[in-house]
Amino acid sequence: MEDLTVTVPAELRERLERLATETGRDVQDCLTEAVGDWVSAWERHLADLTAAEEVRPLLRVASKG
């Protein structure tokens, strides 16, 4: 793993630490999972947008007739 420094508001850090404690997890594990989920969601979203752009010209051609 590589180190990454992130600055967050104090309230967010407190919430994160509280939830990590309540769930019996390490803060780093929570952050790694959250960032991984965010990255995966955006990768899917951008792939969907690309796929939609590839389909759009076909829809225009089909609707002209």
Task: Give a quick set of tags describing it.
mainly alpha, 65 residues, 2 helices, rod-shaped
- Biggest sheet character: none
What's the mean pLDDT score? 89
Tally the helices.
2
Number of DSSP strands? 0
Low-confidence stretches: none
N to C succession of SSEs: HH
Structural class: mainly alpha
Shape: rod-shaped
Calculate the terminal CA-CA distance, rounded to whole Å.
Answer: 56 Å
The percent of residues in helical segments reads over 70%
Cα-based radius of gyration, to the nearest Å: 20 Å
Proportion in β-strands: under 5%
Describe the structure.
The chain is mainly α and 65 residues long. The protein has a domain at 27-65. The protein is 80% helix and 0% strand. It is built from two helices and no strands. It starts with 9 loop residues before the first helix and ends with a helix. The mean pLDDT is 89.
Question: What topology emerges from the helices and strands here?
Answer:
Layout: H1 10-23, H2 27-64
Write a short abstract of this structure:
With 65 residues, this protein is mainly alpha-helical.
